[in-house]
Amino acid sequence: MPFVRELTSWRAGPSDPGDFPYSAVLGEFQRVGKHFVEKELLALLDEIRTRVVAAADRAVPGATGPARLLCDFLDVALDKWDGRYDYRSYLALPLLRLPCTADDPVAGPEDTPENTPETDPAGARRDSDRLLLRLVADALAFELAAAAGATALLPEQRPGPETVAKRLRLGVRAALPALSRLDPARTVDDPEPAVAAATLHALAAADVTDDEERRLRLSMLPVYRSHDEYLFVRVLQAYECVFAGLADELRGTVAALTTGEPAAAADRLAYARDRLAAAGPLFSLLATMQPESFRTFREYTEGASAIQSRSYKLVESLCRTPEGSRLDSAAYRSVPEVREWVLAGHPSVDAAHRAAVRASRLAGADRDRVEREMRAFADAVLGWRRTHHRLAVRMLGARPGTGYTEGTPYLAAVRSTPVFTAVGHGPCPAAPPTNTGGCPE
Ligand code: HEM
Question: Which of 14, 21, 47, 190 is the most exposed place for a label (fewest CB within 10 A)?
């Protein structure tokens, strides 16, 4: 086993985390699937984590050095070995460094509306768009490489050419809003899907640091060898990036309502609504997944479910405080950090809106505009839930979820839960109709 030789020789030397043989280890994990990695290799990696890395810069909060990266990678790679496998480790979220604190709601004083997390909202939006672009472009690059016979990665259940062409088209459509927000002068409009996807990938690659590129590579640790799992992982990661961005916008909305800036509050809600609606094609993209492939690899994803997504639950609870029954259900028991944060008395748009109205900080045309944007955002969220439910029915049928719910009946039961209580949800505002997210079709 050449990778074991590489590892043992690395361990026998200075064991510099910056020289860790990532490619060899990653290659082996991807060759067999995380679920099937030999125990001998896992034990060796575990020993390396304990002996070499544990005492290094991981102890320093916020550390970003090579030892921290190695620790994060080993934690993700060894999740099944450790018995900690879950949604965050499956998607390697600690390695992706979502560009806001949404994945870490208990991070500190920024949880108060007076202390919003981002000092630079425009920078946070840009980072989020860049990450989304990288994720989608990488998924398409894998499709292109596999179709050209240029990669042996995840060789089972390859899709046919028509499916690939559809994926490339939908993937480009999903990434375009981020691309044009980053630079309105750039677009991808070649009618040939393979050319458009290759162009998108080249644009994404032109704007990436070495660290970002390395993290992107390391964040692909499928559990099995089925081609479509690559798409599944990247789409889930892309949605995590979107939810994290939405959480930032909602925090900003709370802060603006609290400090008497209704126009800023409405703008942030509008931005969040556009962002979620524009992400709709990600669901269309995932709908090209072959259901039999999904059923094959999900045999090994038991225990990892998006019900554990912190950023989704953070978005939900930043809109309004969930009812006690929901807080006590699997929905919030699966995200104990967010549940604690809610129980400790967290801020929400709903509460900030009521307080602002009571204090006469929000009235007249300003109040109308904020409430209109709240309703529009609520519509986008409800549309997302309906599309998600339909996709789950198609892929899963009557099977239970990997998050230990009964599956789609759970999603059907929660899909119309009100997003806000301070305002209802109303007719869809003027916005581009989409059949996968925004307005109901
Ligand atoms: C093949 C596609 C998908 C299927 C079959 C599916 C299925 C399910 C099921 C059955 C649940 C209930 C919890 C459980 O027991 O696991 C769930 C929850 C959830 N899924 Fe999906 N899902 C899919 C794609 C996605 C995608 C792309 C996202 C985007 C991140 C997503 C986000 C969520 C979230 C946030 C929840 C928690 C909802 C809540 O607790 O209210 N899912 N999904």
Answer: 14
Query: Residues near 198 by Cβ (< 8 Å), separated by ≥ 6?
Result: 141, 144
Render pLDDT for 345-399 as a digit per residue (tens, 0 to 9). Answer: 999 999 999 999 999 999 999 999 999 999 999 999 999 999 999 999 999 887 8
| Contact of 367 with 375, CB cutoff 8 Å | no
**70: CA distance to ligand 1 center in Å?**
29
> Does residue 305 line the site of ligand 1, with CB under 6 A?
yes
Q: What are phi and psi of 226, to 5 degrees?
A: -90, 130
Region 36-50 average pLDDT: 94
The chain-wide mean pLDDT, for the chain, equals 89
Q: How far apart are CA 256 and CA 128, in angstroms?
A: 21
DSSP state of 156: B
CB neighbours (10 Å) of residue 1?
11
- 419 occurs within a structural domain: no
Task: Give, for ligand 1, the residue of 305, 396, 417 to mutate: max count of ligand atoms closer than 8 Å to Cβ.
Answer: 305
Rounded to whole angstroms, how far apart are CA atoms 374 and 266?
8
Query: Closest Cα partner for 371 from 382, 383, 363?
Result: 363
Whether 422 is covered by a domain: the verdict is: no
- Listed in sequence order, the residues at least 6 apart from 254 whose beta carbon sits closer than 8 Å to its beta carbon are 113, 318, 347, 348, 349, 352
The contacts of residue 299 (CB under 8 Å, 6+ apart) are: 224
**Which domain CATH number covers 304?**
1.20.58.480
For residue 204, give the nearest of 186, 221, 184, 222 by alpha carbon. 186
- Contact residues for 129 (Cβ-Cβ < 8 A; gap 6+): 178, 179, 181, 182
Spell out the alpha helix ranges (H) of 97-186. Answer: 121-147, 161-182
Number of helices (H), then strands (E), belonging to the chain: the values are 22, 0
Regarding whether 389 and 282 lie in a shared domain, the answer is yes
Ligand 1 pocket member 33 (CB < 6 A): no
What is the pTM (predicted TM-score) of this model?
Answer: 0.93
Mutate-to-test residue for ligand 1 from 284, 311, 411, 415, highest number of ligand atoms within 8 A of CB = 411
Which residue's CA is the nearest one to ligand 1's atom 2? 392
Distance CA 421, CA 396 (A): 32
Residue range(s) defining the domain that contains residue 40:
2-84
Check if the beta carbon of residue 227 is closer than 8 Å to that of residue 320: no
